[in-house]
Amino acid sequence: MNANATGASPARQFSYAVVIGRFQPLHHGHQRLIEQALRTARRVIVVVGSDRQPRSVKNPFTFDERERMVRACLQGQAEQMRVSVVGVGDSPYNDQLWIASIQQAVDRLIAQDGADPAHTRVALVGHLKDASSYYLRLFPRWEFVPNEAVQSIHATEVRQLYFDPGRRGRIPPDALPEGTASFLAQFAASADYAALVEERVFLDDYRDKYRYAGSEFPPIFTTVDAVVVEAGHILLVQRRFQPGKGAWALPGGFVGKNERLLDAAIRELKEETRLKVPVPVLHGSVKGREVFDAPQRSQRGRTITHAFFFELAHNQWTGLTEVRASDDAAQARWVPLAEFLDMRERMYEDHYFIANHFLGGLGKN
User: Fold this and answer.
1) How far apart are CA 279 and CA 282, in angstroms?
2) What does pTM read for this prediction?
3) Each residue of 231-261: pLDDT tens digit?
4) Under DSSP, is residue 124 helix (H, G, I), strand (E, B) or coil?
């Protein structure tokens, strides 16, 4: 039995150690993982997940802000030089793509140091706390080095306290590393913080309204989304209201109790964009459909969406089909696909990944 199988802490037996987390925000448990990685390897790579996401109560902080929190927990210039921080985006409907993205990010940093990733000993430092830690078993190339549990407030609890409108951003003293606490105190004075508190209030009221919290069999909501393309452009709307106020999204919404799914998708599409295409033509323009059911895809509660892919014929003489924002959309516009591929951090919930499914993986990197 080797050292990492017993839980012992090897003293820099590895060239690199990897720590993976969302760090929303960084807490004492995260800090201990990074400290363990520094004891385990000469170089440490901190992989910050959920990169390029729009701000939300679940993912409130940007990559740059989370890197600041990581670096604030390091001691001195020597540790700063030994730690690299890299962001990796989510792939909620493709675990293999997510794994590959992390492997590529780590291999790229190792290669930049002049080493061969295929022949470099790498440790993966983590704590197997519950089912949410399953990802630690997805990297067989790296040797798993366990870290003992730390009595620490969890990130979910921090967010619940921090965005509670009655607390105004106050967190119990010593609940978080000094660097994290300092950053959160500054962030609480920002307009972004105020917007997130507004979203938190909306979500709490929404769950209370539908009696979601505490129910043995909570409701499962059914929605539809329309992925509409024409001549290298995709049709997007900007959300007028919470949740996700200001984010860009696919046209869509909830299914009426007497509606078929496609009928609901077309109704929502026309209500939000006033798309100048007759309903029979839209029926004939459907090129694909798919169900997207990641359990945590929506903050409102368990929401399963049925997405429809519409490919419209283009008239080069009249230009793109006319659209106009209406209903709960603040804007509606045709976005060039090349521009859309750079909009991941501005897209609502998982809509970027839904659209990309039908676009043939154009935005997978």
Assistant:
1) 5
2) 0.83
3) 999 999 999 999 999 999 999 999 999 999 9
4) strand
